[in-house]
Design brief:
single chain; 440 residues; alpha/beta; 2 domains; 6-stranded antiparallel β-sheet; 42% strand; flat
């Protein structure tokens, strides 16, 4: 019996030793796997954190992150790793420019012996300004609709969240929806005199995020052109000018008055007219030919009385860039068929005056009053208080910093106009438009 007991004790001891060794092996393997997973996770964190830095440098066009067409940049240049003490690891980049249409950014993180690669694809396109005009009115800070004013056929949105930033009169009406700023509370931000809320056709909702509208680049005007004599039409039977009279020169003033007519022949090509003052008081500017004409106006632009500009052609064929600071006023029974981009000037449209074309300004005020009608695709004035008074009408869309409409005014939302903006650069200083297309 004693012999069997010894065998049993020895067997149990061996089993316990084997089990203990197995447990140690399991714990060791588990610790190795845990360390490996931690190293991989940390390498991934380094790669992704470095990727954010790379993306910002690429978008900012830092020289060391901007390879030429079909070129590759490695950081460090020798293809090794740069230490990142704060992350207790290291990183490296490879930036590949594919035909100047796609940038591939490889961000590699290393921790201990583990490496992880994050790949980002950044698309490169022309920096073309394309405004969002999918609403009847967008107003950045405040929106007021009073009297019997009405927004017909389109939505309204604002970033406003402050108390009483949106005000609606009893008889005012928005046919579609009203969107207020992210997180805004309707009962706090919107003061609606019509307590039934039936004056908002599709109700009130919140924007998912604040929206930002920016003007395109204002173009550089021609410099160093020869100065020629002014063109004044105030008596006789009018005057006709051809490209040889106005191209590649600077005209101090074009003045048309006394109900006379100035005919501008543009032929079949696009033309530029650079002028100091464009003064049309009770006069008519007739433009003939198939080409487009762009006016670069330095100091003064005025259309008054019952003057007409471009009355027989499509609005998209004529555009004015205005650099002056004096307010642009279109009053009386004027008619202007063309677009306007005022760098900083305010704009007033009154009387029975009308503009058929796009209106843009970096100024602080756009006022439409009397029986004026602005048949524009949009009034784009993201820094301005846009105000409609009397029975003023806008057919198109409005972008403003603040919007006020009262009386019997109307905004008829539509984009069904033939007139369009000329091709404009975005606000990024003329750089290529870059956007993150893929991340993996």
């Amino acid at each position: 019996m004693g012999r069997y007991a010894i065998f049993i004790v020895l067997a149990l001891t061996f089993s316990l030793m084997t089990y203990g060794q197995g447990l140690r092996n399991v714990f060791f393997a588990s610790e190795v796997e845990l360390t490996r997973n931690h190293s991989t996770s940390q390498a991934r964190n380094i790669a992704q954190s470095a990727a954010f830095v790379a993306i910002q440098n690429v978008l900012d066009e830092e020289a060391t992150f901007t390879p030429g067409e079909n070129a590759t940049i490695r950081i460090p240049a020798d293809g090794g790793f740069s230490d990142w003490p704060q992350m207790q690891g290291a990183y490296r980049y490879e930036i590949i420019n594919q035909a100047d249409t796609l940038l591939r950014v490889l961000s590699v993180g290393r921790f201990n012996t583990r490496e992880y690669t994050t790949e980002i694809e950044i698309g490169m396109g022309d920096d073309t300004w394309e405004p969002d005009v999918t609403r009847a009115v967008f107003s950045g800070a405040r929106f007021t609709l009073d009297g019997s004013a009405r927004i017909v056929g389109g939505h309204v949105a604002t970033n406003a969240t402050d108390a009483g930033a949106v005000r609606l009169g009893w008889s005012a009406r928005i046919d579609s929806s009203l969107s207020i700023g992210p997180g805004a509370v309707e009962g706090f931000t919107v003061i609606n005199s019509n307590t039934s809320g039936t004056n908002i056709g599709l109700g009130v909702r919140n924007l998912p995020r604040e929206e930002n509208y920016t003007l395109p680049q204002f173009p550089d005007f021609p410099v160093g052109s020869p100065v020629v004599g002014s063109i004044v039409t105030s008596s006789g039977g009018g005057r006709t000018i051809d490209p040889a009279d106005y191209e590649n020169v600077f005209i101090p003033e074009i003045r048309v008055q006394g109900n006379r007519q100035l005919t501008i022949n543009v032929g079949s090509e696009d033309r530029i007219i650079h002028v100091g003052r464009l003064d049309i008081k009770q006069g008519h500017v007739r433009i003939i030919g198939d080409g487009h004409v762009t006016f670069y106006v330095e100091d003064f632009f005025d259309v008054a009385g019952s003057s007409t500009v471009n009355a027989t052609r499509d609005p998209e064929t004529t555009f004015v860039y205005y650099k002056g600071t004096g307010e642009l006023k279109f009053t009386g029974s004027t008619s202007y068929r063309g677009g306007i981009y005022a760098e900083t000037a305010n704009i007033g449209i009154g009387g029975s005056g009308g503009i058929q074309g796009n209106i843009m300004t970096g100024g602080s005020s756009v006022e439409i009053f009397g029986n004026a009608e602005a048949n524009s695709r949009i009034i784009f004035a993201p820094n301005a208080h846009v105000e409609l008074k009397g029975s003023g009408r806008v057919r198109g869309a409005i972008v403003a910093d603040r919007f006020t409409a009262g009386g019997n005014t109307r905004v008829f939302y539509t984009t069904a106009f033939d007139d369009a903006f000329p091709e404009m650069r975005g606000p990024g200083g003329g750089s290529r438009n870059k956007f993150v297309r893929n991340w993996r």
